[in-house]
Task: structure prediction
Amino acid sequence: MKQRLAVIGNGMAGVFTVEQILKHNHDFEITIFGDETHVNYNRILLSSVLAGEKDFDDIVINDIDWYRQNGIQARLGLRVDSIDLAAKTIRSAQGCTTAFDKLLIATGSSPFLPPIKGIDKNGVFVFRTMDDAKHLLALSGAGVKAVVIGGGLLGLEAARGLQLQGCDVTVVHLGTHLMERQLDFTGGQFLKRKLESLGIAVICSASTTAIAGETYAEGVRLTDGREIAANLVVIAAGIKPNTEIAKSAGLNVNRGIVVNEYLETSHPDVFAVGECTEFQGQLYGLVAPLYEQGKVLAATITGNRGPVFSGYTPATKLKIMGADVFSAGDFEDQREGVECVRLEDPSLGIYKKLILKDNKLEGVILVGDASDDHRFMDWLRNGVDLTEQRRHLLTPTAISGPGEDVAALPDSHTVCGCNGVSKGTIIEAVHSHGVCTLAQLKDKTRAATGCGSCSSLCQSLLKAVAPDYAEEKAKVLCDCVKFSQDQLREIIHTQRLKSVQEVLDIYGNGIGCEICKPALSYLVDVAWQGDHHEDRSARFINDRVHANIQKDGTFSVIPRMRGGVTTPAELRKIADVAEKYNVPLVKVTGSQRIDLLGVKKEDLPKMWEDLGMRSGQAYTKGVRMVKTCVGSTFCRFGTQDSITTGIELERRFEDLFTPHKTKMGVVGCPRNCAEATVKDIGLIGQEGSWQVVVGGAAGKGVRKADLLITVETTEEALEAAALFFQYYRENGHYLERTYDFVERLGMEKVRRDTVYATDPVKQGLLDRLDRSKERASDAWLERYSPRPFQFSPIEINGNGNSNGLVQIEETKEKVHV
Amino acid sequence: MSNPQWVPITSIENLPPNEGRSLHWHGLDIALFNLGNRVVAVENKCPHQNGPLVDGIVSTFDGRVTVTCPLHTRRICLESGQTVKPAIGGPCVRTFPAKIVDGIVMMQEQRSEAEAA
Ligand code: SRM
Ligand SMILES: Cc1cc2nc3c(=O)[nH]c(=O)nc-3n(C[C@H](O)[C@H](O)[C@H](O)COP(=O)(O)OP(=O)(O)OC[C@H]3O[C@@H](n4cnc5c(N)ncnc54)[C@H](O)[C@@H]3O)c2cc1C
Ligand code: SF4
Ligand code: FES
Result:
């Protein structure tokens, strides 16, 4: 008969252990109890969800099908109340009883709540579960004042997340410096300055006595009498293991449930794993050691008792871009016989400290630059003798090619700490499964699916060992110019090339084609902010005649109609023009404007003149439109003036070119009537603030835009949009829509390089946008000076009859003034 | 019938470099391309779905100078009139002899469609 295995806790360690059990030969009937209603998800990434980088769906590890496919009963939303070790049953809070043969306790921990008066007020939260994250997301936003109590890893990630949602954030920390379990005083100071430069206020050595306010939190009161205003308070003051049920069942429990090196508890049929355990007096609060425990336990419980858990040197990495922190081992430098090697660079905000004993690394702290963390981790884990490296401990020898530093790592080196994936495993995946992209690697090995901080190391490894990876990176524009777009951008800048032909002559085959010429046209335009030599022969026909070619060789004319707003007079003019030129089809487009289709090329300049409207750029890779809803102008739900804002947005960006077409939307409330969440740039009004979202589309694929930032004023929203717009112009590949662009770069990078960049960087983007805008003009003004020969066929006076008396046509193109 | 006569069409200045310009002549719709030191002329009708080749981008394929049809990016060899991309040896468009003499574009006299029929 099958043995019944009951698992209490549907969290990271418990389910990981079950995954490992499934890899062994086993005959368990498995039931997992979890008091959260969600399927197994990656708790670590709740920080990314709060920061708006990931959706809840993105962080699910095992969906419901996984449970079904593996014959696992999931009992979710059910809290286990008690364990009867004599009867071998567990009882849930709802009163049902389940019998087991073997029991696995993986209850994790709960947030520690310090004795603060009024901690039960509305607006006070903890940050541990998906539900917590949902509540925080629902209440955060521009203008919200948030206080985070606790300056450890969790508190700081919560603080950054809330700030990205638009809150004004203050961190109140009891200790003398931030992250004191991972950093020394100096490290804590460096980190504090980093966070302050990101706009997060930090108060150290501050003890909170009470939450002020009636039923709702209004502020946080400190022992020194200060009160900090807050409508949202997050308690992140540490965790305590969930051991109550184990304790009352009579198991041996100290601070955690006591386990031995096989993860056995004091009862032969009961095992425990995760944050709820205590091993040799030690509690663990990071997944890497817990996963290690899970592997050992899976062997033990399936009758393969042998592997042992022998403790672990966990490494901590703060997942806040721009405030890199890495810490591992024992960094205490006052101990007997230890030496300390340090580097401090206050203006760069970089602090590094190594603790050595007998020429071996015992501890490391990195703040501000954690790029070479894996080197130190390797020294630490493997007890490498550093005598030979003494001269360049903190300054790695220059890396000459990609992957050379990773080449130096031993195969046993753990690349992904969260999932315990070694360099050897990755190389194996490349060689035997042909893995050559990060996505495939994640799929095959789980590397980089935890906190994600090893992604760049994984990538350098792939670069170094996967033969196809190099090719993928070196993707060339086309056969005419065999360089990647990034290289070409660089070449155009450094070699000061201002025309497509120059690039083709020097770096290509001199002729080009329909793929590279339009791309190069864009690259030289944006590189020189419009101050380039425009070569129309390198442009697609649409960009030569400023209209969209149709299947029969005629063209379509879409005038600009900012924000989708028009007037009776304008409509009358459009009607007149349509009749005058016998336009076969007049149609309202999907982008809130009017299309005159089936126009003869020769008629274009005259039509533009008769219309007297601006070009809608519907034919080009450039600024299309800003769709708006009526917003607060008429709508009873409108919270923001979407029409005025949309028109202004369109006015600021119109006439400019972009890597691919750029579509925008502005809506007055989250009902989203003009579909701003599926636009390249969207502004979503809400009471007292705007959400600026980017990277959305509803074309070939549908992608919901990502939050760039939440801001209070319209001007701030327009500026955030401008920063992203110019950043996309400068860094997007030609024909890359924003939905691919943000995925390629990652939203965190996009934010860091735009709205959270330093002031000079932001100013640079805005200045370059202004320069381009000054040089740009409405394409349809060419009606006053059309390019010669562009619109009309060659005319031969006489009919070219056989006596050969053909008059040579003068440059007789019509010039309209 | 004797060799058709060369007739002057227009000054080369009236053809923008590396671009096409159309010519209606003897009931034909012709696309003339100025390739710098020479001109070429093909019928202005893509063999695929009659796309206006004159509006295409001048390109190159396997050493041959081509024009890329603006509608669905087929590449047509400007010398032979043959479609070379997506597949070499695709259907052809008519080509017409053309040359530059003293800055004047010359073409050989055509019989009109009607006469030819
Ligand atoms: C005229 C219009 C349809 C209409 O009758 O409403 C239209 C017509 C064309 N669209 Fe569109 N799109 C039109 C709105 C849209 C919309 C709706 C919107 O903008 O809100 C979308 C989905 C939104 C989006 O892009 O995210 C849309 C998604 C596409 C796509 C798919 C883009 C993608 O990356 O997924 C293409 C193909 C492409 O760009 O590669 C496309 C391409 C085209 C082209 C330009 C195809 C072409 O290259 O010739 C069509 C031109 C037809 C013609 O003969 O003139 N059109 N197209 C709309 C013009 C809007 C305007 O006023 O400028
Ligand atoms: C926001 C955040 C960021 C983090 N970042 C990192 C990081 O960057 N790196 C890192 O290594 N770690 C990080 N951690 C810590 C990491 O998530 C935990 O170490 C890990 O989740 C612990 O796994 P566990 O299975 O022991 O506990 P959990 O994942 O908490 O799982 C325990 C589950 O058991 C349930 N449960 C408890 N009691 C009962 C009961 N009586 N009946 C039924 N169900 C019960 C709980 O509700 C929970 O769902 C982070 C944690 C948070 C909250
Ligand atoms: S949906 Fe297709 S057919 Fe319709 S306009 Fe867009 S591209 Fe043309
Ligand atoms: S009509 Fe020329 S490619 Fe289709």
